[in-house]
Amino acid sequence: MHSLKIGALFLLSSLLLSATCERQKSNEVTTEDEISQHGTLPPVENRDPNTDYEPAFEGQTRIGGVKTTTPYEVTVIAEGLNKPWAVTALPDGRLLITQKAGSLRIATSDGTLSEPITGFPEVDDRGQGGLLDVAPAPDFESSRMLYFSLAERTPQGSLTAIGKGRLSDDETTIEQFSIIYRAIPYFDNSMHFGSRLLFNKEGNLFVCTGERSDLATRYNAQKLETAHGKVVHITPEGKPVAGNPFIGQEGILPEIYSYGHRSPQGLDIHPVTGELWLSEMGPRGGDELNLIKPGKDYGWPTITYGIEYNGNTIGEGITAKEGMEQPVYYWDPVLSPSGMAFYTGNAIPEWQNNLFIGGLNSNHIARLVIENNKVVGEERLLADEGQRFRDVGNGNDGALYAVTDEGRLYRISKAD
Ligand SMILES: [Ca+2]
């Protein structure tokens, strides 16, 4: 009996050891690196929270701090961009940058900017609207097709729309722009369009939409006959993807993938697990990082770790409910999370698969170390720059690039 137990223990520890070795091999990091990735410093947030809500589990907020040990340099490689909203690499390594009023720029990795590229329909660039995200089609090198999200303005109001067009051979215009998807219904205001878009490896699009901020539309996040406050999953033609969780169900939009979102502005796919992650702005307190699974309800406005801007509770003032997903992580006070990217470069190995999220009114980029779908460390980068970080993206050169509301393009790269 005794020796059997020891035998079982030995077997178990050998298994664990071999599993650990496997993981080291795949991530090319040493055990020492892995340990240093766990936050052992004080949490980066030390201000009082806006609420007295308790997290659902340890580490859901205010995780221990981490500090990058690899020397890196931060360079402003371009200035004078007009309200850039997204930065995304082309296959050749140049960067696409949208400007909110309705144009596109192309930047080289040393910061040389093209003239504004036009050819878009009129966008509603009031408030949080405008020409928003951009993604090259998976076959961009042959098709030259680009996909965009934008706030479309019509006499009935505005909505989040997805469109596509061809980058002309001389790179001065977008040709044959057409709208492929509209997140109904229209509503006449200028807020919470959401609208990051990205292609998955099957070549379909994920798009996140906001609930348009108004009390009249807030509850649409829970209503499956609207596309407000959702992640939708569509083909490059704008049609629901076969296999979507609600396909064939009466009264439910077939493009819906997840729901119960407030103002999601960050979306990316984990480079190793292939899972979809989303950041969303909460109200006062309660900004969230969510792991998105098909058909799930992310709770807004029924559950939240935030409160109204006037201090009132939202709904019943609860943070958890059966059948609703908990955020993996939340911030109170808020980060104001905008665009985000998992680092996929090799230049700074300790950053591999870490998540970098642009913070708007928090004026920094949040670096999150994530293991087994939990946040285990947080760092604030570029906090001395005093900028509103609108988007962060990977270059093809191992550097991260970020754009700010103030019009800067940053390069964050390994120091020589
Ligand atoms: Ca939520």
Shape: globular
CATH architectural grouping: 6 Propeller
Mean pLDDT, to the nearest integer, reads 92
In the predicted model, the low-confidence regions spanning at least 5 consecutive residues are 1-35
- Please tell me how large the radius of gyration is: 22 Å
Helix content, binned percent: under 10%
Main beta sheet strand tally, sense and closure: 4 strands, antiparallel
Fold-level CATH name: Neuraminidase
Distinct ligands, ions and cofactors found in the model? calcium ion
Q: List the strand order in the largest sheet.
A: 1-23-22-21
CATH-assigned homologous superfamily: TolB, C-terminal domain
Structural class: mainly beta
Query: What proportion strand?
Result: 25-35%
Number of domains: 1
| CATH uppermost class | Mainly Beta
Oligomer: single chain
Number of helices: 4
Task: Describe what this molecule looks like in 3D.
The chain is mainly beta and about 425 residues long. It has a single domain (about 40-415), classed as 6 Propeller (Neuraminidase). About 10% of the residues lie in helices and about 35% in strands. The protein has four helices and 23 strands. A four-stranded antiparallel β-sheet has the order 1-23-22-21, with no helix packed on it. Strands 5-6-7-8 form a four-stranded antiparallel β-sheet. The chain has a four-stranded antiparallel β-sheet with strand order 9-10-11-12, with no helix packed on it. Strand 13 (about 265-270) and strand 14 form a beta hairpin. The chain is globular, with a radius of gyration of 22 Å. Mean pLDDT is about 90; it is low at about 1-35. Calcium ion binds near residues 288, 299 and 327. Calcium ion (CA) binds next to loops.
